Amino acid sequence: MSATLTAVRASSGHAQILWAVLRKFRLFAILAAPLLLIAGGLALYFGGRDMLVKAMPSFVAFGLIFVWWGAFMALQAQNHPVAARLVPGQLRQLREVALALMLTIALVDGVLMQLVVGHWLAWAILSTAACLLFSILIRWPMLWLTVWIIPSTASTWWKTPTWQTLMAVMQDWHARQPVTQAALAIGLMSVVMWRLFQSGGPSHGGQYQRAAALRQAMKEQAFSGRAANLFPEGRFARLFRGLFCWLRNLWCHHLVRSARPTAASALARAELVGSPSTHWSMVVGTSLVIIAGMAVFFLVGYSLAGDGDRALKGLRSALGGFSFGLMSMLINPVMSAPAALYKRRREQALLMLLPTMPRGEALNRGLARRQMIQFISCLGFGLLIVSGLQFGWRLQGPHASDEMLSMMSVHYATLALPASLILWRDWSKQREPNSAHTALLVMALVGGMVVLGAVMPMLGISAWVMLGVSAALTALVAMIRWRRVVKLPTFWPTGRWG
After folding, report:
1. DSSP characters for 460-476?
2. 447: burial class by Cβ within 10 Å (0-12, 13-18, 19+)?
3. Helical H runs in 220-279?
4. 127 near 142, Cβ under 8 Å?
C-alpha cells in the first residue's frame, strides 16, 4: 500500500479536486450558451456591432462570477471535517485550488473589462471582492437574509460624505499606485479566502452537517417540491415554520373544521396533503410575510433618514426589483409542480382510499380545475401588488428606470401564463423529474422576459396589452386541451406508469 501511495503524483490531488468542481458545470454550459446568444442578438439588433463588442465581454465577465459561486460550493462540499483532519495535504490542496480559481477569474474579468472601459487592475480587485463575498455567503448561509439591505439602501449611503471621502481616497491611491493597491487588496482577500476552509474538529463537523442539510433542503424545496425544513430543529426552526406557514396552518384547520362527506371537501383536503409546498396557502402566506417585513423595513428606514427625497428615491429603486422578486416567488412553485406531485405519490395513493375521494374523470376534472385556479390566483395576487406599487409611485412623478424594472415582472407573468398549461398533462406517466428541467424552464422564462423588456418599448406595445394577448391565447389553448385532460388516466398516484 505504501508503494502505491508513493507512486501517486503530488499534483493528482489538485487534479481530482478540480475535476470534481468541473463536473458541476454541465448544466451551466447548457444554460449559458442560449443566454449569451440571446444577449448577443439583442445587443447586435439595438446597438449594432459596436455595442456587441462592448456588451459581450461584460456578459462573460459577469457570468464568471456565477461560475465561481458554483465552484466554491463544490469546494466547500469537499472540505469534509474527517478528510481535512486525517488526509495529508487535502486541506492545503483545497485552499490552493480555490485561490488559483479565484485569481484566474479575477484576472480574466480584468482583461475582459479592459476591452470595454479600461482599468483592468481595478476590475480585478472588484472581481476578487465579489468572489469573496459569495464565498462568505456560502460559508454562512444565514447572511443571505441581510444581503438585500445593502442595495435597497444604496441611494441613502452612497452620497454620504464618509463614503464619498473613502471613494476619493481609493481612486487617488489607484491613480498613483495601481499595482501596489491591487497586490495589497487581492493579497488580503486571498488570506481571508484561505481561512474560509476549515481544518476539522467538532465545530467544523457541526458546521459541515448544517451546511449539507441546508443545501439538500434548498435543493428539495427549489427543484423537488418537498416541504423541506431549511432550519435546524429547535425554537428557531419552530419560529420560522410558524411564521412562513401561518396561512397554510389556518387553511388546514379550516378544512378540518368544515369537513363534509362530499367530493369537493375531500379533494380540497387531499390537495393540501398531496402538494403542500406548492399550495396557494403556502405561496401566498410566505409572500405576505415578506411583504410585511419589507414594509416595516422601509418605514423604519424612511423615518430614520434625514433626507426624505433621498429615502423616497432609495425606496423607489428597491421596489422595482422587489416587484419582480415577488412575481417570481408566486410563479416559480408552479413550475416545480411536477416534482412536487411525484415526491408525494405515496401520500396520493393513501388519499385515494378516502371514501368520498373522486376517481377517474371526476378526479382529473377537479384537480385540473384547482391547479389552474391556484396558479391564476397567485398570478393575480402578484399583478395586483405590482399594479398597486406602480400606481402609488406614479403619483410621486414619472421615473422611467423604475417603471422598466416593474414592467419586467409583468413580462415574466406574460410568459408564465401559457407555461402554466404544463399542469395539464398525463400525470400517471410522469417520470422522476430532473432538477435541470425546472432550471431550464425558469431560465427560459427569464431570457424571454429580457427579450420582451427590450423589444416591447421599441415597438410601442404596452406590457399590459401583451399580458392580455397572452391570457387570451392561453384561454383558447386551455379550452381545446380541456376535452383531452378529463379523458386521461387518473392523475393520482403520480408516476405509477412512469
Report:
1. T--HHHHHHHHHHHHHH
2. middle
3. 235-244, 246-257, 263-274
4. no
* Burial status of residue 6 (CB atoms within 10 A of its CB: 0-12, 13-18, 19 or more): exposed
45 to each of 11, 38, 42, 226, how far by Cα in Å?
Answer: 47, 10, 5, 42
Give, in degrees to the nearest 5, the angle at Cα 443 between 319 and 384: 35
* List of E strands, 174-243: none
C-alpha cell at 385: 401588488
- Per-residue pLDDT for the chain (498 aa), expressed as one digit of tens each? 333 333 334 446 788 888 878 777 766 666 666 667 767 766 766 666 777 777 788 888 888 888 888 888 888 888 888 887 778 888 888 899 999 999 999 999 999 888 888 888 889 999 999 999 888 888 887 677 666 666 656 666 677 788 888 888 888 888 888 889 889 999 999 999 998 888 877 778 777 777 766 666 555 554 444 444 444 455 555 666 667 788 888 888 888 888 888 888 888 888 888 777 778 888 888 888 888 877 777 777 666 655 555 556 656 666 666 777 777 777 766 777 777 777 778 888 888 887 888 888 888 888 888 888 888 888 888 888 888 777 766 665 555 445 555 677 788 888 888 878 877 877 777 776 665 566 667 767 777 777 777 777 777 788 888 888 888 998 898 888 888 877 777 777 777 665
Neighbours of 185 (CB within 10 A): 20
Under a CB-based contact definition with an 8 Å cutoff, are residues 71 and 135 in contact?
no
Largest CA distance in the chain: 81
Question: Which cell numbers hold the place of 119?
Answer: 482599468
Please list, in sequence order, all residues whose beta carbon lies within 8 angstroms of the beta carbon of residue 490, skipping any fewer than 6 positions away.
359, 360, 363, 364, 428
Please check whether residue 398 is in contact with residue 378, taking contact to mean a CB–CB distance below 8 angstroms.
no
| ∠ Cα 472 477 480 (to 5°) | 130
Best CA proximity match to 327, nearest among 479, 218, 442: 442
Grid coordinates 414592467 are at which residue?
A: 407
Pick from 412, 380, 383, 406: nearest CA to 393: 406
Q: Which amino acid appears at position 393 of this protein?
A: W
Which sign, positive or negative, has the C-alpha torsion 416, 419, 424, 425?
A: negative
Spatial CA neighbour of 491 closest among 335, 371, 355: 371
Determine the 3-state secondary structure of 489 from DSSP: coil
Statement: the pTM of the whole predicted model exceeds 0.70: no
* Secondary structure (DSSP) of 141-184: GGGHHHHTHHHHTHHHHTTSHHHHHHHHHHHHHHHH-HHHHHHH
> Positive or negative CA dihedral for 199, 201, 202, 205?
positive
